[in-house]
Automatic annotation (TrEMBL):
It catalyses: DNA(n) + a 2'-deoxyribonucleoside 5'-triphosphate = DNA(n+1) + diphosphate. Belongs to the DNA polymerase type-B family. It comes from the Eukaryota. It comes from Mytilus coruscus. One of its GO terms (molecular function) is nucleotide binding. InterPro entries: DNA-dir_DNA_pol_B_mt/vir, DNA/RNA_pol_sf, DNA_pol_palm_dom_sf. GO terms for biological process: DNA replication. This is DNA-directed DNA polymerase.
Length: 244
């Protein structure tokens, strides 16, 4: 968490830092604000935007939290070259859901799961921490939805896209944005270097496209890896055409 916060720099907080104040005295003051309000000790000399280091830190965090709620009884696979090896698996009382597939005249792929009473629990799994983390994220999301009401256009596990109509509700949400642990982040500013969304359309969970005020197009489509070829076919205009 410390490395991710430091690698985010002060640019990640649009309320306290502008894109053109990376190295002046004003920026140092804003970095100090982030350090003073952090939930852990940060090194002021290391609070600099570093997208590569931030990505690595984020992956490490996701891996850590993911292990708390990870299933530990996965399907096992073994390549068998002898009848003795196959028999040892098929007639083992510790295994269930056994299946075999002949790959060629010399190799048989065998799949199985361990029965619950024989399965060894993963020492890194902690369901209570996983439940608390997931539930707390939902509570933060519901708090946001309760404020915005019908202004919400799209929501996901930890994100929300809404229509900013200048109301007191939207101003309240804006005041919830910041760099501290638990604050909201305006990803339109921090991630895409834009100010607002001009057009937005969603066909369902993890399936949306939007055009920003910089004319940049941002899309998400579950099940597809968005490369140049796919983005030419899954466009904002095509989604609009298929949705109406």
């Amino acid at each position: 968490m410390k490395y991710k916060q430091e690698a985010s720099g002060c640019k990640c907080d649009p309320k306290y830092c502008k894109n053109d104040c990376k190295n002046d005295k004003e920026c140092k003051t804003k970095i100090q604000y982030i350090i003073d309000n952090a939930a852990y000790n940060l090194d002021i000399d290391k609070v600099k935007h570093n997208s590569g280091l931030r990505f690595i830190a984020k992956i490490c965090l996701n891996n850590l939290w993911g292990h708390f709620g990870m299933r530990d009884n996965f399907t096992q696979k073994e390549y068998c070259f002898t009848l003795e090896h196959i028999t040892k698996i098929v007639f083992n009382e510790k295994y269930k859901d056994i299946s075999t597939m002949i790959l060629d005249e010399n190799i048989v792929l065998t799949e199985y799961k361990e029965k619950e009473e024989y399965s060894k629990p993963n020492p890194s799994v902690n369901v209570y921490i996983a439940l608390f983390t997931t539930a707390h994220a939902r509570l933060k999301l519901y708090e946001l939805l309760d404020i915005l009401q019908e202004r919400v256009l799209y929501m996901d596990t930890d994100s929300c896209i809404y229509n900013d109509d200048g109301s007191e509700a939207c101003k309240k949400v804006e005041n919830m944005m910041g760099s501290k642990l638990g604050d909201l982040t305006d990803e339109i500013v921090s991630k895409h270097n834009a100010n607002h969304i001009k057009q937005f359309i969603s066909a369902g969970p993890k399936d949306y496209s939007m055009k920003l005020d910089t004319e940049k197009l941002v899309s998400c489509c579950k099940g597809f890896r968005l490369n140049a070829e796919v983005e030419e076919k899954i466009t904002l205009d095509k989604k609009k055409k298929n949705s109406y």
